[in-house]
Amino acid sequence: MGDSYKPKLSAADGKDPVLKKTELDYMKIIEQMNAERVKKLQSLTRRNRITGAAIGAGVVSIYLYSIFAVKQETFLDDFNEPVKVVE
């Protein structure tokens, strides 16, 4: 069963189907609403990406600061036992 088996759609009288003006107007309204929805979703996606990048940058900066701060600590490097005082 190839592509030739698929039935072709046509109007009952053999002419191409013609949409009414009200149907065309309704389609335009739906297309406009869909375009507005897509714009809202795109702006939401953009804001989410900016927020995610800001949070990620904050996490990375805190991590790097912590690593840098720990490397500067030297109080354990020169640890000598206190000298015993003999009396």
Automatic annotation (TrEMBL):
> What Pfam families would the database entry show?
Coa3_cc
Per UniProt, what is the membrane topology? Single-pass membrane protein
Keyword list (alphabetical) reads: Membrane, Mitochondrion, Mitochondrion inner membrane, Transmembrane, Transmembrane helix
| TM helices/strands, residue ranges | 50-70
Keyword Glycoprotein carried by entry: no
Q: Which residues form the Cytochrome c oxidase assembly factor 3 mitochondrial coiled-coil domain?
A: 34-82
- Intracellular or extracellular location(s): Mitochondrion membrane
Highest taxon of the source? Answer: Eukaryota
Listed under subunit, the entry gives: Component of 250-400 kDa complexes called cytochrome oxidase assembly intermediates or COA complexes.
Q: What PANTHER family does the entry give?
A: CYTOCHROME C OXIDASE ASSEMBLY FACTOR 3 HOMOLOG, MITOCHONDRIAL, CYTOCHROME C OXIDASE ASSEMBLY FACTOR 3, MITOCHONDRIAL
Write out the function statement from the record: Required for assembly of cytochrome c oxidase (complex IV).
Q: Which family does it belong to?
A: Belongs to the COA3 family.
Q: This protein is called what? A: Cytochrome c oxidase assembly factor 3
